[in-house]
């Protein structure tokens, strides 16, 4: 019997705002002392009142509009009651039956079937909880003092009250890789919109998958299982594949899938039972009496729509249209918004002074140097991060022109770029200071070539015996002797001439 999987996702993302969702405490939940960004409101003290963060609301609306969702003309917040040590009020302010925005579509490029439209059910806004840190006694462990032999937990409220959006999809996804592509594309969109940094490792984006299987040829969906704790794209893909296999095997053997929440153990590569699923009524949702309902006019919505930036898919299509790029290059330029912007800023620096045919060559050169050399040198350092990335598009464009005009050789260009990344200096300055200017002077190159020949008699001998690799070795030595400055073709030519005279 063949089983068909049905998958829906629930994705939480912490919104990028200055302050928390309902108070003025800073929205900084990472890499800080615990319990410093707190106030009576987010600590749930009696008598305090929440005030909704307008920027967070606008960011959720912009995500909704970017995904083709309809904005609710009337929306409200609700209380979701449950007790947990990281929830100071004993309830979470969320949205129950009137989410800010709903019914959208995200088209993804699936690995198996090409373009596919995944329907978005809803996107609502809520507040995040605090963070629990569980400490288990292990032999000889250090860390905070604890009662002898006890396991216990600490709670950090810096994250309590941070604005959190929750996006729910329709069950349109049918495999782990599809779920992964959906989540990656959503992450990109959140970053393009500046709605969230959506870094999964930092818990800024968290994914839950609802997975069920049904026998092929039937229409009724099987019992769904919710898988939590998916902290990377890879674990999303693996956990879904595991669940599909587990449920299919269970049904095949005549067993029954129970509706439950399961966790994901990444090192074992398995899901495990956590608890049977609560029904919604157990949360006793009711309208939040301390916050006014929200109303959005057509003008409000159009203003947010007008401010939407170019989105990843639009940028892909435009880059293909405007430049001669491979799919892989477009993906490099789109998957990091700042890399793409750096590329286009470079092109506009090149533009004004060139004819079209020259410009094409220079753009090609820029793509090559950007996608391989520059990104290689950065090794993951985020481009454009304040004070960290020092190369300006103007200087990068200047370097491309110098390479194109053969003012410097390719090894010297790479060395110059390395220096630019380290110091931010302009290429002219570096080339002059380091003596990188390309050498076309035959007598200087010849002098260096004679030295190389004298210093490497074995290689000269090998060359005469017909070993072609020795010539390459000697050219390399000659380039080194001129600090990479010699014009490589000229260097080769001069070496060959001298060797034939030997
Ligand atoms: Zn606060």
Report on the structure:
There is one protein chain. This protein starts with a strand and ends with a helix. Helix 5 crosses helix 6 (327-335), helix 12 (442-455) crosses helix 14 and helix 12 crosses helix 15. The chain is built from 15 helices and 16 strands. The longest helix has 23 residues, at 356-378. A nine-stranded mixed beta sheet has the order 2-6-7-10-1-11-12-13-14. The chain is an alpha+beta fold. The protein has helices at residues 54-66, 176-192, 233-252, 298-306, 312-322, 327-335, 337-350, 356-378, 393-404, 410-423, 427-434, 442-455, 457-464, 468-481, 488-501, and strands at residues 3-14, 70-71, 74-75, 78-81, 91-94, 101-110, 114-127, 131-135, 152-156, 163-169, 205-215, 225-230, 260-265, 270-276, 286-287, 294-295. It folds into three domains: 3-305, no CATH class; 310-434, no CATH class; 442-501, Orthogonal Bundle (Arc Repressor Mutant, subunit A), CATH 1.10.10.410. It binds zinc ion. Residues 20, 23, 25, 38-39, 41-42, 161 line the site of zinc ion. Residues 20, 23, 25, 38-39, 41-42, 161 line the site of zinc ion (ZN).
Could you provide a short overview of the structure?
The chain has helices spanning 54-66, 176-192, 233-252, 298-306, 312-322, 327-335, 337-350, 356-378, 393-404, 410-423, 427-434, 442-455, 457-464, 468-481, 488-501; strands at 3-14, 70-71, 74-75, 78-81, 91-94, 101-110, 114-127, 131-135, 152-156, 163-169, 205-215, 225-230, 260-265, 270-276, 286-287, 294-295. It has 502 residues and is an alpha+beta fold.
């Amino acid at each position: 019997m063949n089983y068909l999987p049905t998958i829906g996702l629930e994705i939480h993302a912490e919104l990028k705002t200055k302050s928390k969702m309902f108070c003025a405490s800073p929205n900084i939940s990472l890499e800080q002392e615990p319990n410093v960004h707190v106030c009576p409101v987010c600590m749930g003290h009696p008598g305090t009142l929440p005030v909704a963060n307008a920027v967070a609301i606008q960011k959720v609306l912009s995500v909704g509009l970017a995904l083709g969702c309809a904005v609710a003309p009337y929306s409200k917040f609700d209380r979701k009651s449950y007790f947990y040590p990281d929830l100071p009020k004993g309830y979470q302010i969320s949205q129950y039956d009137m989410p800010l925005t709903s019914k959208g579509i995200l088209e993804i490029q699936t690995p198996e079937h090409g373009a596919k439209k995944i329907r978005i059910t809803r996107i609502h806004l809520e507040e995040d909880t605090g963070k629990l840190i569980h400490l288990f006694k292990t032999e000889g462990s250090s860390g905070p003092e604890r009662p002898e032999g006890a396991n216990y937990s600490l709670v950090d409220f810096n994250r309590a009250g941070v604005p959190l959006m929750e996006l729910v999809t329709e069950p349109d996804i049918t495999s782990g890789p599809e779920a992964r592509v959906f989540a990656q594309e959503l992450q990109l969109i959140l970053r393009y919109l500046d709605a969230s940094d959506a870094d999964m490792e930092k818990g800024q984006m968290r994914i839950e998958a609802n997975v069920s299987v049904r026998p092929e040829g039937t229409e009724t969906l099987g019992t769904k299982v919710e898988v939590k704790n998916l902290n990377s794209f890879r674990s999303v893909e693996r956990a879904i594949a595991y669940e599909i296999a587990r449920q299919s095997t269970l049904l095949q053997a005549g067993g029954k899938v129970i509706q439950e929440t399961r966790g994901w153990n990444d090192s074992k590569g398995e899901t495990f039972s956590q608890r049977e699923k609560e029904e919604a009524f157990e949360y006793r949702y009711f309208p939040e009496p301390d916050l006014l309902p929200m109303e959005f006019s057509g003008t409000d919505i159009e203003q947010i729509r007008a401010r939407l930036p170019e989105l990843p898919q639009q940028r892909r299509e435009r880059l293909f249209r405007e430049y001669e790029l491979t799919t892989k290059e477009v993906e490099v330029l789109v998957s990091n918004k700042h890399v793409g912007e750096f590329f286009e800023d470079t092109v506009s620096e090149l533009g004004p002074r060139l004819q079209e045919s020259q410009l094409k060559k220079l753009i090609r050169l820029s793509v090559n140097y950007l996608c391989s050399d520059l990104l290689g040198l950065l090794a993951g350092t985020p481009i454009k991060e304040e004070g960290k990335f020092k190369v300006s598009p103007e200087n990068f464009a200047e370097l491309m022109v110098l390479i194109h005009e053969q003012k410097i050789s390719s090894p010297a260009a790479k060395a110059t770029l390395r220096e630019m990344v380290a110091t931010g200096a302009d290429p002219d300055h570096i080339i002059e200071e380091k003596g990188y200017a390309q050498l076309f002077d035959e007598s200087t190159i010849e002098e260096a070539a004679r030295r190389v020949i004298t210093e490497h008699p074995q290689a000269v001998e090998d060359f005469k015996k017909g070993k072609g690799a020795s010539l390459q070795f000697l050219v390399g030595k000659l380039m080194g002797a001129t600090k990479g400055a010699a014009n490589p073709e000229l260097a080769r030519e001069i070496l060959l001439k001298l060797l034939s005279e030997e």
